[in-house]
């Protein structure tokens, strides 16, 4: 987990680049938060992503997500969504609709991870998070983490049928089932959407399908979340089959 000092200085720097002195800037560079953009070709991107996915298991990334629930370690929070989305992208899209980026904006993606969460259903960010995960310690969740997940799923599964994704995010944040803020709750629920756990019959997650961009937009400006969670309502409930597929548990 990144230390509190580095995170505080990094977020301060991203708000105002002139707010840190040279010593402080060097400190966040040493911690790997402030980085040069990574230039990459289309072939390198696809080849590297395939190799990365081959070296990472579903068990490792699901454990990473679970571990993050009690620890609030955001370095591990979005690995699962990145894996599920990248695997689907590589199988179904592979650059046909979504242009492969010419560079990876590592500093920006670090900022998003700590500040606003989520992966926004695009491919550069999952690529970066997964490449980082290769060299990270693989974590084992505790029973507390499984219990937190079960409580989150139960809360969603029993939500009022007519209530929206925004309402779920707001009310779950108030429940304080786990230590978080509203942005972190957003990223968590978007992860469950990408995994096909909080999806709808018409708008699936990315567990075993890939939805083209033009089919993702809900056209509801009040629902600004990543696809497919922004389509979700209480009546859609929880897809427990994908809970079992991903976390190997029966709730």
Walkthrough of the structure:
This protein is mainly α. 53% of the residues lie in helices and 2% in strands. The chain contains 12 helices and 2 strands, in the order ααβααααβαααααα. It has helices at 4-15, 22-30, 42-55, 58-71, 74-77, 79-92, 106-115, 124-133, 143-157, 165-175, 182-194, 240-247; strands spanning 38-39, 103-104. Strands 1-2 form a two-stranded antiparallel sheet. Helix 6 packs across helix 8 (124-133).
Kindly list the characteristics that best describe this protein.
251 residues; mainly alpha; two-stranded antiparallel ribbon; 12 helices
Mean pLDDT metric: 93
Radius of gyration: 18 Å
Q: Regions with pLDDT < 50 over 5+ consecutive residues? A: none
Oligomer: single chain
The secondary-structure element order is HHEHHHHEHHHHHH
Major β-sheet annotation: 2 strands, antiparallel
């Amino acid at each position: 987990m990144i230390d509190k000092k580095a995170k505080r200085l990094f977020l301060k720097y991203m708000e105002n680049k002139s707010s840190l002195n040279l010593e402080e800037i060097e400190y966040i560079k040493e911690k790997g938060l402030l980085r040069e953009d990574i230039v990459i070709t289309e072939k390198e991107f696809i080849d590297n992503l395939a190799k990365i996915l081959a070296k990472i298991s579903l068990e490792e990334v699901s454990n990473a997500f679970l571990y993050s629930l009690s620890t609030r370690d955001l370095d591990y929070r979005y690995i699962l969504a990145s894996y599920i989305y990248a695997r689907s992208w590589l199988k179904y899209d592979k650059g046909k609709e979504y242009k492969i980026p010419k560079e990876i904006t590592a500093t920006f993606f670090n900022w998003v991870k700590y500040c606003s969460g989520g992966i926004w259903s695009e491919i550069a960010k999952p690529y970066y998070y997964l490449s980082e995960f290769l060299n990270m310690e693989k974590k084992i969740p505790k029973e507390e983490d499984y219990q937190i997940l079960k409580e989150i799923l139960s809360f969603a599964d029993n939500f009022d049928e007519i209530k929206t994704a925004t309402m779920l995010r707001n009310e779950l944040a108030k429940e304080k089932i786990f230590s978080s803020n509203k942005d972190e709750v957003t990223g968590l629920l978007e992860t469950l959407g990408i995994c096909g756990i909080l999806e709808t019959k018409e708008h699936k997650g990315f567990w075993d399908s890939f939805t083209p961009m033009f089919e993702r937009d809900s056209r509801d400006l009040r629902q600004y979340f990543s696809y497919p969670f922004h389509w979700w309502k209480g009546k859609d409930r929880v897809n427990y089959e994908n809970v079992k597929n991903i976390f190997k548990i029966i709730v």
